[in-house]
Amino acid sequence: MLAQLVPLAGGPTITLDRDVTVVGRQREHCDLVIERKSISKMHCVVIKTDGLLFIRDLSSTNGTKVNGQRVVRGALLPGDQLEFASEKFRVFLGPDQAARAVNPGDQTEFLVGPPQRPVEEHFAGPDDSSSPDVEVIEEDIVE
């Protein structure tokens, strides 16, 4: 799954590569560093799992908002607006580029076996007319 944060004020899109991303301004402990005074040293975590994104605020001073509502924790959906203090992003979720590329070894392989006999051959006995339990009735058809 491709998870990205698109800055609403412009700038480069942020791709969330990790399953757990710590957001804040402290370089030593954060995976996503936003150098703004309004962002706490360790502001929040974004968790990527099973095609979903979850957010958890880490008791930040200025809060984390989803669609304008301050949250302690919550799920993120595609198109949601996510705010770390005053920094606003649009959430993008989609298929991973690597998942779309088909590796030739990952394709379904068809095995070709020996030719099969027609179904009729499976049910036909030796010559049915000579079999003792087959009675052939010949009728004259009158038109």
Describe this structure in words.
With 143 residues, the chain is mostly beta strands. The protein is 6% helix and 34% strand. The protein has a 6-stranded antiparallel β-sheet with strand order 2-1-11-10-7-8, with no helix packed on it. Strands 4-3-5-6-9 form a 5-stranded mixed β-sheet, with no helix packed on it. A hairpin with a 2-residue loop joins β7 and β8. The protein starts with a strand and ends in a 20-residue tail after the last helix. The model has no long low-confidence stretch (mean pLDDT 83).
SSE series: EEEEEEEEEEEHH
Low-confidence parts:
none
Please give the alpha-carbon distance between the first and last residues.
74 Å
Based on CA atoms alone, the radius of gyration comes out at 33 Å
* Number of β-strand runs: 11
Q: Major sheet: size, sense and barrel closure? A: 6 strands, antiparallel
| Class based on secondary structure composition and strand pairing | mainly beta
Major sheet: order of its strands?
A: 2-1-11-10-7-8
The helix count comes to 2
Proportion of residues in β-strands: 25-35%
What oligomeric state best describes the polypeptide chains here? Answer: single chain
Shape by Cα distribution? rod-shaped
Provide mean pLDDT, rounded.
83
Give the helix proportion (percent range).
Answer: under 10%
Summarize this, please?
It is built from two helices and eleven strands.
Properties at a glance:
single chain, 143 residues, mainly beta, six-stranded antiparallel sheet, five-stranded mixed sheet, 2 helices, 11 strands, rod-shaped
